[in-house]
């Protein structure tokens, strides 16, 4: 069981996180943090990583204090401004705490294996500072996993990915966490991806935990309260559920946002 202490953060006298904490996360569980822009999601993940790095007992797995080496972290908008190849960087990361002058046995094989698993072997010999945004994100995932972490923390891991790669990455992360029975904590903006690939969701509002629980806490009332958007739940034939948000459901925001266009197109009388 992963327990995380409450975290507060002030930046220039403004409270960004107010004793933000999560209930215990269980082995093999994937928890996704949802909330609007500026709610404090990335600040929470960064602060958590920062405190773990300082060896503070901010997180524990059962009764053992979590150390930086236990965590694989993919930050938001990840890019690698280094003139080294992806393969070299993976091998270096794998040997970060290796005190020997020789690289660990099977470093090359292990690095190639993770590239294969994420289906990015074609990037092996590319220079990191020449990768596209999406490629950097996929390489960032490989770097986060290379040292077999007990906890995977991903901040908007699909933000730069095309539709196919979004699904591939989420499937891969989901299966990896289940297979290795580790802990997954992530932030995603696409609620439908969160619904498909998470076990639980944590809703953050104004730096505080607003709600937490199984996927069934996601309903139009919660979405309205947190994002100020109208929505509808659609249940498919396989009992999967999706949140439908379109211009009809988000009515008020759409009208405000598009008010000037509305005037120009004389759609005042349209029946929204
Ligand atoms: N270094 C900083 N200096 C000043 N304000 C900051 C700093 N870092 C974050 N903030 C503020 O803290 C708040 C929370 O930011 P954070 O990046 O955690 O939001 P978020 O929920 O991850 O948003 P998004 O969905 O847009 O990524 C925002 O209002 C942001 O402007």
UniProtKB/TrEMBL annotation:
Alphabetical keyword list: ATP-binding, Nucleotide-binding, Transport
Alphabetized SUPFAM superfamilies for the sequence: P-loop containing nucleoside triphosphate hydrolases
Pfam family of the protein (one): ABC_tran
Gene Ontology molecular functions: ATP binding; ATP hydrolysis activity
Domain ABC transporter, first and last residues per copy: 2-231
Annotated InterPro entries: AAA+_ATPase, ABC_transporter-like_ATP-bd, ABC_transporter-like_CS, Metal_Ion_Import_ABC, P-loop_NTPase
Family classification: Belongs to the ABC transporter superfamily.
Protein name per the record: Iron ABC transporter
Species this protein is from: Paraphotobacterium marinum
């Amino acid at each position: 069981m992963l327990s995380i202490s409450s975290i507060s953060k002030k930046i220039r006298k403004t409270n960004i996180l107010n004793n933000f904490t999560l209930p215990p996360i269980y082995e093999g569980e994937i928890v996704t943090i949802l909330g609007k822009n500026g709610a404090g999601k990335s600040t929470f993940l960064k602060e958590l990583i920062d405190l773990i790095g300082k060896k503070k007992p901010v997180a524990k797995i059962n009764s053992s204090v979590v150390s930086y080496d236990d965590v694989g972290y993919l930050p938001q908008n990840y890019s690698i401004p280094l003139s080294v190849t992806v393969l070299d960087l993976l091998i270096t990361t794998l040997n970060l705490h290796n005190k020997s002058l020789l690289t660990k046995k099977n470093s090359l094989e292990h690095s190639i294996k993770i590239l294969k698993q994420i289906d990015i072997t074609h990037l092996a010999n590319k220079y990191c500072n020449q990768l596209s945004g999406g490629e950097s994100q996929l390489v960032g995932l490989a770097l986060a996993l290379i040292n077999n972490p007990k906890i995977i923390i991903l901040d908007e891991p699909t933000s730069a990915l095309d539709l196919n790669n979004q699904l591939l990455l989420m499937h891969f992360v989901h299966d990896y966490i289940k297979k290795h029975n580790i802990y997954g904590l992530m932030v995603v903006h696409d609620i439908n991806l969160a619904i498909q690939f998470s076990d639980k969701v944590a809703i953050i509002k104004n730096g505080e935990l607003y709600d937490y629980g199984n996927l069934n806490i996601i309903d139009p009332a919660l979405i309205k309260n947190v994002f100020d958007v109208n929505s509808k739940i659609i249940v498919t034939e396989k009992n999967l559920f999706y949140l439908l948000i379109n211009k009809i459901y988000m009515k008020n925001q759409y009208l405000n946002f598009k008010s000037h266009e509305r005037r120009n197109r004389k759609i005042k009388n349209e029946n929204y």
